[in-house]
Design brief:
This protein is α+β, with helices and mostly antiparallel strands. It has one domain: Immunoglobulin-like. The protein is 16% helix and 40% strand. The chain has one helix spanning 2-21, and strands at 27-33, 40-48, 51-59, 67-71, 82-85, 89-92, 103-108, 117-122. An eight-stranded antiparallel beta sheet has the order 5-4-7-8-1-2-3-6, with no helix packed on it. The longest helix has 20 residues, at 2-21.
Length: 126
Amino acid sequence: MPVRTTLATVAAFAALAAGAAALPNPLVAKLRPVGPHGARGNVTLFRIRSNVDLGLNVRGGWWSGEIELRKGTCAHYAARGRPVGHSEQTAFPHAALRQFVGSVVLLHRTRDLGSPVAGCAEIRAS
């Protein structure tokens, strides 16, 4: 009996590993506007060696606000997040794509993280 349990456990871990390997690279999320003058475009997360690069493509002109990562969805996200900066390309050293799944990328109108959100993108596995 313990052998079956062990084999089932090994099979479950193998299925999880196969699912993790199936995560697309890059992950692309649509940037949806928030408010009447919100930002549109896309966010791309791309794994390169041991790093993940976040690329931001905002349509409709140059954008200069702050970028922030939070857990959740665009409708309901965590009260606090991880500031990313204000560059259109940011590198996360020693990161995996999987750790970004279930997060949202928020674009604030200005470089103040307390400013209103202008755009939101949900990072999903599919």
